[in-house]
Amino acid sequence: MKRILFITATRIGDAVLFSGPLAHLARRWPDARITVACGPLAAPLFRAAPGVSEVIVMAKRKGGGHWLDLWRRTAGTRWDLVVDMRASLTGWFLRARELRVNWRRPGEGHRHRVIEAAAVLGLDADPPAPQLWVDAQAEAEAERRLPGDAPVLALAPAAAAPFKEWPAERFAALANALTGPGGALQGARVAIFGGPGDKAVSDAVRSQITQAEVTDLTGALDLVEAAACLKRARLFVGNDSGLMHMAAAAGAPVLGLFGPTDERVYGPWGPKARCVRAGGPADEADRERLRHADSSLMGGLDLERVLAAAAALIEESQA
């Protein structure tokens, strides 16, 4: 039986973008025992993943102590394959017949993260798409939260950093225009997604939506339940965030809103995924500087452009 160690990202978005190679390994060796090592936030994504027998949660420690913890957990196993998406050097100190490491720096050459991940296994010519694995428990929760077949407009108005957040009042205005009389999703329910720390942003959006019934799921779901709910969306609109990548992997039509970050590297991936950006330069080399900004840098993205892009994507996906 093949033993595989897959070391993946801490951030939810990167973990989703790196999930294609993991799915490829499970398909290629269906009898393999796969161990996934990742950060606490991303860990729930793999609870229903086929072939995954263990998830090692790496809680960050000072001085890189979490890598030493991982080595202690894995050094006693003879691995057939170690795939290290983090380029942590851990694999060099393990007993592995084969080691594949993602040496490329994120964003270098504006290559998308999905292609970057696929290249680790030599699959960049035909990169496997990101995957989400949803279990029956999550599907039941999605049916409870968003019952029936009524159209759902999913919004994710928060992001990991304020500079990536489109203004709350524009999210609300977009929802009112799409779900109100004559809108492309007239009569649809609005579902707001976010993590426990996103409540203030979600409340600001919800309070200004007047044309639709709103289900606020902020902080109410685990990641697999969120994935099951996102599968039901007729359209997802959100900032550059982990939820945006989850929605695309779930198969929903996705409109990603970009400004200071680079959609060439972090755009949503899939045949029904589109981006609209605020304009101006986008370079991942600026991320260290931008991440200290305490206010939105998305003001240049006006409502009319997003509304037009959303209506076009709805029409295209329905066709």
From TrEMBL:
Keywords: Glycosyltransferase, Transferase. Pfam families: Glyco_transf_9 (PF01075). One of its GO terms (molecular function) is ADP-heptose-lipopolysaccharide heptosyltransferase activity. The keyword Transferase applies. One of its GO terms (cellular component) is cytosol. GO terms for biological process: lipopolysaccharide core region biosynthetic process. It comes from the Bacteria. This is Glycosyltransferase family 9 protein. It comes from Alkalicaulis satelles.
